[in-house]
Amino acid sequence: MDLRLLKYFLMTAQEMNITSAAKILHITQPTLSKELKHLEDELGITLFERSGRNIALTEDGTWFRKRAREIIRLSDDLEKECIAISNSDIHGDLSIGVGEADFLNTIGKCVNNVHTKYPHIRFHMVGGSGDRFLEKMDGGELDFIVLIDSPDIKQYNYVRLPDQELRGLYMLRDMPQVEKGYVTPEDLRELPLILPKRKGLHFILRNWAGMEYDDLNVVATYNLIYAVRTLAENGVGCVMCNSGCIHSSKLAFVPLKPVYTDQFYVLYKQKNPMKPSARVFLEELRKLV
After folding, report:
1. How far apart are CA 33 and CA 160, in angstroms?
2. What pairing do the DSSP bridges indicate for beta strands 144-148 and 192-196?
3. Which residues touch 14 (CB under 8 Å, ≥6 apart)?
């Protein structure tokens, strides 16, 4: 498939007007119309609904726009990496999914060390959940992801980080567990909870106290920790996460008892040729652990 046609399609999808897109691309309107029709014929799908001068993306066109953007981004990255290799100067973009673990000390040190040696590498720290991260890494959108607890996914390699964090609940300061200084399994069954939306939580509950998710009073779930601070501050529930995740004068962190510490891992794809920026990041990370 010709990358030129993908760029023509993306510009037309952006402008939603063939005349405007043709001017930006510095080609004639008939030429652009012909090239778009050629692309549709090659793909065997209709990308645009046409009504006079007006056009709109079809459902297939909307799907194809997402894929076309990914292909163009990967192509641009490849060009930058080849230039970097030929010039013996590593640069480019490096995307890391961090989720709840955006405070990890080892990752911060690694980014700083790599940036010092290779100042032209640009880092992108991406928030989200573990399940979504895996989809993005499979699609080439992420180079590494940081996950909590031991990964059991065979198609990925991983590096175990030295970072460990206490798991507990953030709750209003006048709650009895704050004065007591800990949260027991019995407390957990009674309290209204705001829990992270990820599969690994089931493992934590079973490993820590032999309880199931359905045993709990779950009032809300979250993917991004900052989105639920106000819920806890207003007494909706207690947020389960790691110490240091929430900063609020209204809330206190109370650890679980028995004590539970989370272990962090950095995942990357197996048998996948690494771009230069990812390779030097992994080398630096292994030095730190």
Report:
1. 53
2. unpaired
3. 21
Show Cβ contacts of residue 235 under 8 Å, excluding neighbours closer than 6 positions.
172
pLDDT in tens, 79-102: 776 766 665 567 788 999 986 654
Are residues 224 and 275 both part of a single domain?
A: no
Cβ neighbours, 10 Å, residue 65: 18
Looking at the structure, tell me whether residues 268 and 128 fall in a common domain.
yes
Q: Which amino acid is at 231?
A: L
3-state secondary structure of 258: coil
DSSP category for residue 275: P
pTM for this predicted structure: 0.64
CATH for 18: 1.10.10.10
Lookup: tokens for 64: 């194809």
Percent helix, strand, coil in the chain (nearest 5)?
45, 25, 30
Q: Are residues 268 and 232 in the same domain?
A: no
Least confident of 74-83, 137-146, 156-165, 166-175: 74-83
Considering 84, 106, 134, which residue would you say is the last residue of a domain? 84
The answer on 241 and 110 residing in a single domain is: no
Does one domain contain both 197 and 220?
Answer: yes
pLDDT for res 75: 87
Domain that holds residue 67: 3-84
At 111-127, the pLDDT tens digits run: 999 999 889 899 999 87
